Amino acid sequence: MVATDAECLQALETQRLGIVAPLDARVGGLFSGPFAGASEDHPPQGGKPSAAERGPENSPPTREHGHARKQGELGSGRMADRTRANASRKSGAPSSPPAAGSRAQPSEGPRTAPHPRADIVIVGAGAAGLMAAVWAGRAVPGRRIVVLDGARKPGAKILIAGGGRCNVTHDHVDASAFAGSSRKAIEKVLRRFDVPQTVAFFEELGVGLEREETGKLFPTTGRARTVLDALLRAARDAGVDILHPRRVESVTTVPRGFVVTGRWGHFDARHLVLATGGTSVPKTGSDGHGYEIARTFRHTITRVFPALVPLTLPKDHFITRLSGLTVDATLEVVSATGKRLSSFTGSTLCTHFGLSGPSVLDISRFYIEAVLDDPRVGLIINWLPKHTPETFENELLDIGHTNVSGHLGRLLPDRLAAALCAFSNVDPKTPGHHLQRDDRKMLARAVTRLLLPITGNRGFGHAEVTAGGIPLTEIRLDTMESRLRPGLYVCGEICDVDGRIGGFNFQWAWASGYTAGVSVGRAEGPRS
Questions:
Q1: Are 48 and 241 in contact (CB under 8 A)?
Q2: pLDDT at 114
Q3: What backbone phi and psi angles, to 5 degrees, belong to 433?
Q4: Residue 286: its pLDDT value, please?
Q5: pLDDT confidence of residue 421
């Protein structure tokens, strides 16, 4: 609970008079701990404060807090100093110096209690934020690094990734698998921390990775929890405090850095890392508020929309009655003039609402973006990727006495073959040599170039990643520092970068998080 103005004033007056009786529990957090009596002119002295001392008054330590000292340390020394100072004021004699190990108190009357301070504050405890925290902590041991996350439990998106297995990366990653900002810019960041470095990093953390046929790399345990626990442990070992739930509502600029604010209170920070993610799966805490924070520093946010998201069809479309059926198919985005804009081939899943699966998720961002630019854009599916309408029509000419369903049944699942015949108004029992020319053309087109009447997508709640964000043109790619606000760094999904399914977006998180973490650590410098 936050203290009211009246309670703060009462507490200040109590402190001014030198009264050392316990304060109201709601106010006590404002004046206890190592920052009591500190200000810009009188900064706190001594070692690194504990999470309990420096955090908001109603912030119990979580198991992620690293190297926290017990609450109340140095409290007896401060109380003794105040008692001596009070006695000296009453007698008119100069006060004696504070006891060894205690913190000096200002001598010029009441002061407003300052915010808790950190050298580096990282907003967001997802993949990129935790990566930045680990490497910032390693770069500058002894500095106070705090991660603030609004979720009840950090790393929720890591836990649900890859069906709960966490597709850590892919065995081959380059900029061609990404969209958004220029691929040249994306490649420059990816080279800062590549796949071999990622594999070695997780092996160092005790997380072995194994490759599947698709090139995806998963933890050998088959559990995403293994990945998250390893990152949290690495952050703790690097001296990082992770505070949650601590939703950041706003960030303001001050001469010495930033003031990070939420309902829980405030933090002063010399350097700030935004790793808030995008707007995909908002139930995990990614609600897009990071974009608003970025805008306060005059950053541009490009058009934001769901990516890696299932697409929907009319409820009465025949595909919705094939729910659960999976085939390899090619999806193609075409302009109003029929020009191919993009295409993907891969596993395609028919569902009760429309289409999903890797090929659909991969092409979704390109289709959605194209439709936003021109609603006349279409999406075409080829159920037999090795065929064109012409080649399949010629094949139908050659099947002779074999009926249509028998031939299609050798190429496609029976349910799909029957549905395509029904859609084309072709009797599946018709022998090939009796198939009329128009029927043959209609069936060939339904099989190899079917225009899909897409009605929309399943939205951010089902999207695996967000397209759009802060363009890389506004970021120094060798450090991930903002070009508009020195001391501000960004990484992860908040950037205008989104990749294909298969571990590519995690690799962007590791690479950009590493770059931001090492760079902000170097900017902070070692403790003198």
A1: no
A2: 60
A3: -75, -10
A4: 86
A5: 96
Residue type, 29: G
Q: 3.10.310.20, 3.50.50.60, 3.40.50.300, 3.40.50.150: which CATH number matches 119-305+466-524? A: 3.50.50.60
HSE, side-chain direction, 13 A CA sphere, residue 427: 8
Is the CA virtual torsion 53, 57, 62, 64 positive or negative?
A: negative
One DSSP character per residue, 210-276 reads EE-TTSEEEETT--HHHHHHHHHHHHHHTTEEEE-S----EEEEETTEEEEEETTEEEEEEEEEE--
- What are the DSSP E strand ranges found in 351-409? 354-356, 378-382
CA-angle at 481, arms to 477 and 485, nearest 5°: 135
d(CA 195, CA 177): 14
**CA separation (Å) from 173 to 131, 296, 444, 504?**
18, 33, 37, 7
Residues in the chain: 528
Interacting residues of 328 by C-beta distance below 8 A, sequence separation 6+: 345, 346, 347, 348, 359, 385
Give how far Cα 95 sits from Cα of 14, 16, 79, 86, 91, Å: 19, 15, 14, 8, 10
CA distance 70 to 68: 7
Angle between helices 127-139 and 504-524 (to 10 degrees): 30
Summarize pLDDT for 6-32 with one digit per residue, the tens.
Answer: 344 344 333 433 333 333 332 333 223
Which amino acid is located at 279 in the chain? Answer: T
* Pair 67, 148: CB distance under 8 Å: no
Q: Specify whether the CB–CB gap between 117 and 144 falls below 8 A.
A: yes
Q: Model pTM?
A: 0.78
HEC sequence for 440-497: HHHHHHHHHCEEECCCEECCCCCCCEEECCECHHHEECCCCEECCCCCEEECHHHECE
Could you tell me whether strands 265-274 and 488-490 are parallel, antiparallel, or unpaired per DSSP bridges? parallel
CA distances from 157 to 13, 151, 195, 244, 493 (A): 47, 11, 21, 15, 12
Contact 134, 517 (CB under 8 A): yes
Residue labelled with tokens 């015949």 = 421
Q: What is the DSSP letter of 308?
A: S
Q: Which residues of the chain have pLDDT under 70?
A: 1-114, 527-528
**Rg, C-alpha atoms of the chain:** 30
Portions of the chain given CATH number 3.50.50.60: 119-305+466-524
Looking from the CA of 485 toward its CB, the CA atoms found within 13 Å total 25
Amino acid in the structure at residue 52: A
Structure tokens at 441: 């053309």
Whole-angstrom Cα distance, residue 343 to residue 378?
12
pLDDT of residue 361: 98
